[in-house]
Amino acid sequence: ARGTFGLRLPPAVSPADAEAVIRELLADLDSVTVTFTGHESAVRHGRDNALTRAMRVAIRAQGGTPVFKVKTGTSDMNVVAGHWPVPTLAYGPGDSALDHTPEERLDLAEYDRAVTVLREALTRLATGWSAPA
User: Fold this and answer.
1) Which helix (H) or strand (E) holds 34?
2) By three-state DSSP, how is residue 89 classified?
3) Which of 52, 58, 59, 103 is the most exposed place for a label (fewest CB within 10 A)?
4) Are 38 and 73 in contact (CB under 8 A)?
5) Percentage of the chain surpassing pLDDT 90?
6) Does residue 77 come out as left (phi exceeding 0), alpha (psi in the -120 to 50 range) or beta?
7) Contacts made by residues 98-102, CB under 8 angstroms, sequence distance 24+
8) pLDDT tens digits, residue range 70-121?
9) Given this model, what pLDDT does residue 12 score?
């Protein structure tokens, strides 16, 4: 048997450690070959910084309610966060429980609202605006 694994792990588990455990568990199976791809670590930044404040204000300005969720999937954020010393976050419209499923869908009005939120948040950041901590 052969298997290729791309692991999505919580912030406390490193991909290298998970790979080592899996390889150890399969070590006695001579007919099993495993390959691992990726190895991006999950990213988690603090909830209170200029970026999150600008996003929360912009989301509320468009009638939304900001919600923090831990998302451990791979993205550009996971790749660059260790090399780029600035806060990062993931934001997007739609129901995140449906991400990357056959049921994933997006209402165009919700998409338009998300574009406005991003424009407002980025404008606030670019002009040096800061909300009270």
Assistant:
1) strand 33-37
2) coil
3) 103
4) no
5) 52
6) alpha
7) 99/73, 100/73
8) 766 667 787 888 788 888 888 888 888 888 899 999 999 999 999 999 999 9
9) 85
**Encoded tokens for 35:** 């390959």
Contact 90, 75 (CB under 8 A): yes
Kindly give the pairing relationship between strand 33-37 and strand 2-6. Answer: parallel
pLDDT of the residue at 73: 65
Measured between alpha carbons, how far is 86 from 41 in angstroms, rounded to an integer? 16
Contacts 24+ apart (CB under 8 A), 12-15: 13/42, 14/41, 15/39, 15/40, 15/41
pTM to 2 decimals? Answer: 0.73
